[in-house]
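Ticket #4471: complex job returned nothing on first submit. Input attached below:
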Amino acid sequence: MKPLEALHESLHKRVLVEMKGGRSFRGVLDAYDQHLNLVLSSAEEVVAEEVTPHSGMTLLRGDSIVYISP
Amino acid sequence: MKPLEALHESLHKRVLVEMKGGRSFRGVLDAYDQHLNLVLSSAEEVVAEEVTPHSGMTLLRGDSIVYISP
Amino acid sequence: MKPLEALHESLHKRVLVEMKGGRSFRGVLDAYDQHLNLVLSSAEEVVAEEVTPHSGMTLLRGDSIVYISP
Amino acid sequence: MKPLEALHESLHKRVLVEMKGGRSFRGVLDAYDQHLNLVLSSAEEVVAEEVTPHSGMTLLRGDSIVYISP
Amino acid sequence: MKPLEALHESLHKRVLVEMKGGRSFRGVLDAYDQHLNLVLSSAEEVVAEEVTPHSGMTLLRGDSIVYISP
Amino acid sequence: MKPLEALHESLHKRVLVEMKGGRSFRGVLDAYDQHLNLVLSSAEEVVAEEVTPHSGMTLLRGDSIVYISP
Amino acid sequence: MKPLEALHESLHKRVLVEMKGGRSFRGVLDAYDQHLNLVLSSAEEVVAEEVTPHSGMTLLRGDSIVYISP
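Support reply: We reran it on our side without changes. The output follows.
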């Protein structure tokens, strides 16, 4: 199994995405590519314990991502 | 669906673009490429809650982008 | 022997992964690729001696990794 | 339309280029390439509100650029 | 001679590896690749004069390396 | 015209090269490549208004360069 | 002439290598490649005016290099 296949198993499920610089997102994983660019729906952004809901899709750039966790 | 296809659905619609370093933009997405270079029109730049309107197009370099949201 | 072959010998074993920025993970190595993207299961995240268990898989982005150790 | 085509429309017109690290340039866009390396003529460099005129051409390295705006 | 050939001569010998961010390693070089990813055995990690021995192999990611010395 | 062609016009002429981190160089441009690696002769290095002359050639690594100006 | 050819003329001669982060090296250039990875022999490392001699070869990773000078 390769890491991207493991990510495939999280499609359409809620994931936690930790970003560089202390920002994180929780949302449903709707799409990904080989750069780890991700699309989340129903996402919440968390910075310093402040939660901001996002409407619609949120596209996260892969090179700002530290880890992805269910 | 791939992330760039999700971005395609935001073409000609208003998006929020969060950049590295605490800068963000709101504007109409007029173009994008596979590096996530973006062109916004009718853009507003926000740094530390100070809003600066941009006339004409604004080209954002993809590698400074953290996320794109409607 | 190449470094990725050495990593192969750690598959399904517990590893320590030190990340940039003072974060580290302990978990079972379930997958890796040539970018050093890793999938850990039963992972624990450690930041400043505070331990957070992760359920399910955790995908670590290779370019945030400093070293991997058994 | 792709972002580089949008940039083509700014050729031989004045643009504002915001660089990483708080530096910006105003000048006439004389050339660009796919890395967003730019050549400006009649450029002014602005750092912390201090303006320095440049004679001749100024070549800006693409990976230091945050955005380009008319 | 190319740099990677010089590295070949250090195979199975003790090397010092200086990493970005003030971390260094001493250990026996067991493997390397063209990205300068390295595998050390019998490694000791040194951060701010504090020495931590590593058991088994340690895989160092090439892009965190500043220099390698015998 | 492409940016590298504009650079070609500066060959064997004095240029100012601004580097990341507050360092700059003045010297005669003797060579360049597509990464913007540059060779200067008769170069002076300037850091915080302190000028250090360099004898012989100085090779500047392209990815540390912010801009090149005559 | 290309920058790497200029570097070829420094082979087996003493060079000064300035690294990112305030570290520099003086030594004899024994090898280089297209990434500007370098091998120095009889090298001295200088950090904050403290000089440390290196025995044997020292391999410097190209992407930590700012400039190379005779």
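Residues 28 and 39 of chain A are 8 Å apart (CA to CA). Closing as resolved unless it happens again.
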